[in-house]
Amino acid sequence: MVNILLKLRRQMVITTLSLLILCLLLVVRVKYMSITELPSPPAPVVDDVSIQTVHKYNISCSAIYDMDPIEVAKSLVIRRHHIVEDTDESLRNLTSDCPLFIKSRGYDKVCVTEEEREFPLAYSLVVHKSAWMVERLIRTLYTPYNIYCIHYDQKSSPQFIAAIKSLVGCFSNVFIASQLESVYYASYSRLKADLNCLSDLLASEVKWKYVINLCGQDFPLRSNIELVAELKKLNGANMLESSWPTEYKSWRFTFHHELMSANYEYEKIPVRTDVKKAPPPHGIQMFTGNAYFVVSRALIVYLNSSVVVKDFLAWSEDTFSPDEHFWATVVRLPGVPGEVPRSEPDITDLMSMTRLVKWQYLEEDLYPTCSGAHNRAICIFGAAELRWLLHYGHWFANKFDTNVDPIIIQCLEEKLEEKSKLFRSLASPSCRES
Fold first, then answer.
1. Which Pfam families does UniProt cross-reference here (predicted)?
2. Most buried one in 34, 128, 257, 357, CB count within 10 A?
3. Which residues contact 145 (CB under 8 A, 6 or more apart)?
């Protein structure tokens, strides 16, 4: 009899839980089955004229941040069925009237603290598609005291190039690199694109303190005022990945590579030959990392005048993905500003705060499962990772794609704007009044 009662009780618990789950699913379905009928937030109004800028979705980012299951479910419905494309042409049309664009996107309302004015930052943006994503990246990081160099791939679509040219025409501190490359995956051209921007940034009148390079699928996890505070703590040091090369990666720079045609998305790719390269010049010890960095102005000035660095750069031209060992190696050269001594341990991508990338094969071991999608084993982040991204500790993250999940970008913009206003109001009376 007791066993029968226990079985009945267990069945009732299971039935109750099943009903609760079913009810939750029904609530989600009923609430959002007609999501197309939900109103979108109204377009910005400037001087009584409704302006169409980047599309905004009718969703609560605060609820997404708090991991509310209903709102997260809503974000999934949106991304699967109701993504609205923000075209390059629409950005070009909006930026054809610069005063209207500046006002509608809120660039004229950026309140900058004295600390930010005295610590300007430079950015090198190497991009090739999605002009609105480039604009949103700049807008999130924007102050009139920073400076932004855009290098677009010469192979980019005419619509994208036209939108970028129109965009930079609305700013005095955003410009296109004076020398442009056709950028091919893992080739010297990717490194050269950044070097072209760095040369232009160094020649500008803005005496920036640090330079940060980004691509079009990166997005910040810190506001400008937070970045300034973090960079001041570095006190002239640099922040980037730099590790002793593994045997697996050593082939990249021990053999001569030639750029050859490829029958897939990359068009051309460096291919290893049987010709062994001479050792690096000047007895340089090789290190590996990635293409992305946060480095001081002093380091760029040094690199620009160093014969050792110029010889190393020339030696690297026929290697595979030279951007992934060039920066990692030069910060270890004796005597460079912010030098990382060779005797110091590896600086991994998790130790460097520069850029957070979630690798598929490390999910569940080092970080939670990707809630978006994967591309070449890299997570394209989804809305459910909003809170995790903002609290993990890194300053930037990759990858984001509005065609995969537009909600994560919208919510990062909103949360960073909230933090920026809070920190600036605490730091400056004028920002508190605005």
1. Branch
2. 257
3. 112, 116, 117, 120, 173, 206
* CATH class, 87-357+392-434 region: alpha beta
Residue-wise pLDDT tens digits, 46-68:
676 567 789 999 999 999 999 99
Tokens of 214: 């980004």
| Cα–Cα dist 237/338, whole Å | 4
Give the pair of three-digit tokens for residue 204: 């500008």
Q: Considering the entire predicted model, what is its pTM?
A: 0.91
Residues 6+ away with beta carbon under 8 Å from 320: 186, 251, 252, 253, 257, 270, 272
CA separation for the pair 359, 380 (Å, rounded): 10
Indicate which residue of 71, 116, 181, 324 is catalytic. 324
d(CA 194, CA 291): 9
- Interval 32-44: pLDDT, tens: 444 444 556 777 7
Matching residue, tokens 């001087």: 47
Contact criterion met (CB below 8 Å) for 274 and 255: yes
**Domain positions in the chain:** 87-357+392-434
